[in-house]
Amino acid sequence: MTIMLFNYKKIVRKKDIKKAGFSFLEVLVALSIIAIVFTSIIRLQGQTIFMSENIKFYNLAPLLAQEKLADIENQYSFFLEGEGSFGEEFPNYKWNINIDEGFLCNIDEDINFKLKKIDISIAYNRHKYTITTYKFLPEQ
Question: What's this model's pTM, rounded to 2 decimal places?
Fold first, then answer.
């Protein structure tokens, strides 16, 4: 025996009422899929920020190292050896220069050159970039 309920638009049977809506299991599966997707998106966002910081450092560090190398070459100054910062232009960027004595080269009786090894390190937070070059510079 089936009980009939009357609705304004259609007749609804009582046994059909149970099939309307979502089951608890379907809701749990949908929520777990949404949670997995949101977790992946948040992780991807974090990796994007980290990679952006890396790209910025590894693009800027060689330029800053070349600037310090140009200072050494233009001034023939070996007093730049040591460490320092780049000031307000590049906050938290630090440099370190080590100049090692090389061997003496005699070109003429009056002209002596020394081959010097120059190590320039640029550091920013946990990143570090090092460049090593060798230069013939006049003996002082």
Answer: 0.62
